[in-house]
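User: Just a sanity check before I run the rest of the batch. Below are the structure tokens for the first item. I only need the designed sequence back.
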């Protein structure tokens, strides 16, 4: 079954957790004990309705304050798809959490409170989804029940958001506007008669109709080798297979491939999944590949099609989302993990900080603080094989690791 990953974004009290809880409730994805706990807690708080935010806010501080602090991943399925929703916090001090949640998502839901309209945080949420090349964005104008389901209010917010869209640098996005009430359930999973002026579908109907291949922005096939399989049994004495996951497009038997970094050439002989052979390995499938020639391939190497090589270099410039309390500055050294490869890297230049509210850049800085987003150039101790993030989300991204603490301190998206 297809799996669609969705990131949510919204400011405080926009209703993200309530929206997700409503989806779980209306799709009958809540367990009996969870539903009973929600009913009990809602009554204790004196509510005359079910507080669906309790379905997702797992930390005590989240439940007490009514805000989302950490990224929570929620799983549910319908007859058509399986879904993973990243419930991310909307506060400016949790920008790094928003980046984490959106980095692997194919779709996003940005919530806007119908009473407040487009605010500064909305700019930030849209900027991050634009930065991370999320192709499918649903703008859910929530709490329509509190503005009497006003079409005029909906149209005004839609016009303001469309003005924001004119500032983006990634235009290959599909933006869908849906007026909803997460609390009442209007246009979330089920349709409503409260807004006869709206002719579109519900949020779930829209997600169900999405073509995963169209929204993945996957790029061309890349096959990082994670493990070399040598059984050394009598039956498979000469077997030498390369196990990994296919990112991007498809790989098929007979394809001419190049092994990186050696740049030796061969052709795909067989593709295995467990003990079965397949003619083609589809995107995101985990397989074992054998080659026609005995060439040297090890863990960390990459197989690519011979006519579509990535960039091979010891230097690149990237957009960095900084996640650590210790500042990033020119001359600092880190470990870059790019796929299964780890290389030593030095910060060559911090070019500028990017203001994620679309107010421009700041060239006066020389270091990055927590939650900063900036353009940075790195020099590496050995070449890696990468693509620009705009062309390949998997092979164009990496994480930064502090070699002393072993903490992940930043996420990067390669520009060139």
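Assistant: Here's the designed sequence for the first item:
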């Amino acid at each position: 079954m297809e799996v669609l990953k969705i990131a949510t974004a919204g400011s405080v009290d926009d209703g993200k957790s309530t929206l997700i809880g409503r989806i779980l409730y209306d799709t009958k994805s809540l367990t009996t004990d969870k539903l009973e706990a929600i009913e009990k807690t809602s009554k204790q708080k004196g509510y005359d309705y079910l507080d669906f935010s309790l379905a997702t806010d797992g930390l005590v501080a989240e439940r007490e304050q009514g805000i989302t602090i950490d990224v929570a991943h929620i799983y549910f399925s319908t007859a058509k798809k399986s879904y993973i929703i990243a419930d991310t916090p909307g506060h400016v001090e949790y920008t790094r959490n928003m980046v984490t949640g959106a980095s692997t998502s194919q779709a996003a839901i940005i919530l806007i409170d119908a009473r407040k309209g487009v605010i500064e945080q909305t700019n930030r949420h849209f900027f991050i989804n634009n930065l991370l090349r999320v192709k499918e964005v649903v703008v859910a104008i929530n709490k329509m029940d509190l503005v009497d389901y006003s079409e005029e209010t909906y149209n005004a917010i839609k016009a303001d958001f469309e003005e924001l869209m004119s500032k983006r640098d990634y235009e290959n996005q599909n933006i869908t506007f849906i007026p909803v009430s997460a609390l009442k359930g209007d246009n979330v999973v089920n349709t409503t008669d409260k807004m006869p002026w709206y002719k579109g579908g519900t949020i779930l109907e829209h997600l169900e109709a999405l073509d995963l291949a169209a929204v993945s922005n996957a790029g061309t096939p890349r096959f990082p080798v994670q493990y070399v399989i040598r059984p050394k049994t009598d039956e498979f004495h000469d077997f030498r297979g390369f196990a990994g996951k296919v990112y991007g497009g498809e790989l098929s038997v007979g394809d001419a491939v190049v092994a990186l970094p050696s740049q030796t050439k061969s052709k795909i002989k067989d593709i295995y999944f467990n003990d079965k052979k397949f003619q083609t390995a589809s995107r995101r499938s985990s397989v074992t590949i054998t080659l026609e020639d005995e060439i040297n391939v090890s863990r960390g190497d990459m197989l690519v099609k011979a006519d579509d090589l990535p960039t091979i270099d010891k230097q690149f410039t990237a957009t960095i989302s900084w996640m650590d309390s210790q500042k990033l500055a020119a001359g600092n050294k880190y470990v870059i993990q790019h796929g299964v490869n780890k290389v030593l890297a030095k910060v060559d230049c911090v070019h500028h900080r990017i203001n994620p509210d679309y107010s421009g850049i700041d060239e006066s800085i020389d270091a990055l603080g927590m939650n900063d987003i900036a353009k940075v150039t790195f020099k590496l101790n050995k070449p890696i094989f990468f693509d620009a993030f705009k062309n390949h989300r998997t092979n164009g991204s990496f994480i930064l690791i502090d070699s002393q603490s072993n903490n992940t301190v930043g996420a990067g998206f390669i520009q060139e």
